[in-house]
Design goal:
Number of domains: 1
Number of helices: 3
Shape: globular
Order of helices and strands: HEEEEEHHEEEEEEE
Largest sheet: 7 strands, antiparallel
Number of strands: 12
Radius of gyration: 19 Å
Oligomer: single chain
């Protein structure tokens, strides 16, 4: 194999393995079509998504967000943390009215939880209260947190009835507070120990068993059989919330 062929082979391998950077101004932000249009669904809706982050970080972690639509509302409210606003004097917690299932700079989202109707109506006040009380509205740190995953994890922990968890490559979800090494997991079905999001463990019905080593999560989901790996995510059955009423969704 000559040098040109070798260089081409290496390039193609890297391209297939890692996400290449693209211009954020032209990146695809279109809906993938899994969320109902606000005008078509009069009932209240709550959804939680994540997608690979923008640029090289997308090979390592995900960016999550929360979608809320009160009953009879004409549009969704999307809540997420955007690190760009850190240090500007403005809150990193942002609200927009983009489509809840839109791509995150070209990366398709995955839905981790959905509730509709009465179940969602009961959750929304708790979620809004948690969003308002988020302890780090002016702070952002990619690793180990607090960041966008810390924010969504905090809201989930403080909203009864969300029997779901964030994926293992949601770096920052284990940041549960500098002076708070013990806590309840996002799903509300387990317990967690964490030292600054760098070392810890969690165990729960929905969460399975996870070990956090330097911010990297390794684990097993027993209820929805899957292996949890850092950077990769889940290998096995698809993630979804438990105990949801199918008549409500």
């Amino acid at each position: 194999m000559n040098n040109k062929a070798m260089i081409l082979s290496v390039f193609l391998f890297l391209k297939s393995t890692f996400s290449l950077a693209q211009d954020w101004r032209t990146a695809d932000r279109s809906s993938i079509g899994i969320a109902p249009k606000a005008a078509d669904e009069k009932r209240a809706i709550v959804q939680i998504y994540s997608a690979r982050t923008y640029g090289w970080k997308g090979n390592l972690a995900v960016h999550p967000w929360i979608a809320i639509k009160p009953a009879n509302a004409s549009e969704y409210e999307i809540y997420e943390v955007i690190g760009y606003y850190a240090g500007t004097g403005r809150s990193v917690v942002r609200m927009s009215h983009r489509e809840p299932d839109s791509r995150w700079f070209g990366n398709a989202p995955e839905m981790h939880f959905e509730a509709r109707g009465k179940e969602a109506e009961e959750m929304i006040p708790h979620m809004l209260k948690a969003i308002e009380s988020y302890p780090y509205p002016n702070d952002y740190r990619v690793y180990p947190g607090p960041n966008s995953n810390t924010f969504v994890s905090y809201v989930m922990r403080n909203t009864p009835g969300i029997y779901a968890d964030l994926p293992p490559n949601a770096i920052g979800k284990d940041w549960i507070g500098q002076a708070q090494p013990f806590g309840v997991t996002e799903s509300g079905t387990g317990l967690q120990f964490s030292l600054f999001g760098m070392l810890g463990a969690r165990v729960g019905l929905v969460d399975g068993l996870e070990l956090n080593i330097l911010g990297m999560n390794f684990g097993i989901d027993f209820v929805r059989p899957a292996i949890k790996l850092p950077f990769v995510g889940r290998l096995g059955f698809k993630d979804k919330g438990l105990f949801q009423n199918p008549e409500e969704n």
